[in-house]
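Dissemination and training. As part of the outreach component of the grant, students in the summer workshop were shown how a complex can be specified as a set of sequence lines and then modelled as a single object. The example used during the hands-on session is reproduced here so that future cohorts can follow it. Participants entered these lines:
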Amino acid sequence: MSIFVQAKSRVSRFLMAFFRKRRSRIGIYGPPNAGKTTLANRIARDWTGEMVGPVSEIPHETRRALRKQDITITGNNGSTITIDIVDTPGVTTKIDYKDFLEYGIGKDEAVIRAREATEGVAEAMHWLREDIDGVIYMLDCTEDPFLQVNIMMIGIIESRKLPVLIAANKIDLPDASPQRIRSAFPQHPVIAISCTEGKNIEELYEQMVYHFG
Amino acid sequence: MQQGVQIDLIAEERLSEMTSYEKIHMILDNVREGRIVILEKGLSPEEQSRLIEMTMREILPDGFNGIEIETYPSRDDAPGFLQRLLGRASRESRLTVIGPANQLRMIRKDKDMISAWVSSR
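and obtained this result:
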């Protein structure tokens, strides 16, 4: 990183700390089934004892942006941040109700689910342009990170100059490769985690305090 | 009747004369008709964000079910001294292929080649 970028980053953090809003809204974005709601639930449970939303292996279980307010996270050095966590529907460029039929869902319910999912993704994109102050971009590290939707989303987040952490989730699975995600997005911090087992989740909290504080 | 898929290749000059709104509507109108749209120069991140949002609003059961989009990885322009100082290195958007999700399937993508398969409706 050049000396100019480092200096700019320090000045930016100083100014943000000086003028910062009372609470930042941190959006959890990523493709469907990356573990976004599992992470939102873990953060909310660890720091408030409550949950954000239900999880499921069916894609687009989260079809509206869900917000958990006033979460205070404390880092190892005693620094704290108070944030709202916004759990968003999985971002995609295509949704077909027929994809839900293979999960044993009837046609009527699948059509409703698809319609809600499209509204949720549109809403999530709108939030990203208007109401989000920082992003945790969630990826399943057993999947290919070079999907166009990931490239586009990271580009959109960068263009808005939002601080971003990339969470390489599911490191507990045999095919996990967080290194592939680091290679795909070398310009951003990547934290390898397992939301279901809680592996390395403390490191994510440390990075959140540092980057979103 | 002849079977086939229409492909529209839009030159950078034409795109530069269009507003973001016009570009997104042109893309979605064509793709909903079953055409493949190839943009000589890709969309800005803001336009991509609005394209995803508007695509979602156009999806219908048993009708249009979204888009497939692929582009070469963007190249960072070599920043000048002032750009480096301000941290404003711009990214060049590149050739972009967009088509109906049920007709266009990407087979392989490299930094300098996109391989796609197109089916007629």
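The longest helix of chain A spans residues 107-130. Students were then asked to discuss how this feature might be tested experimentally.
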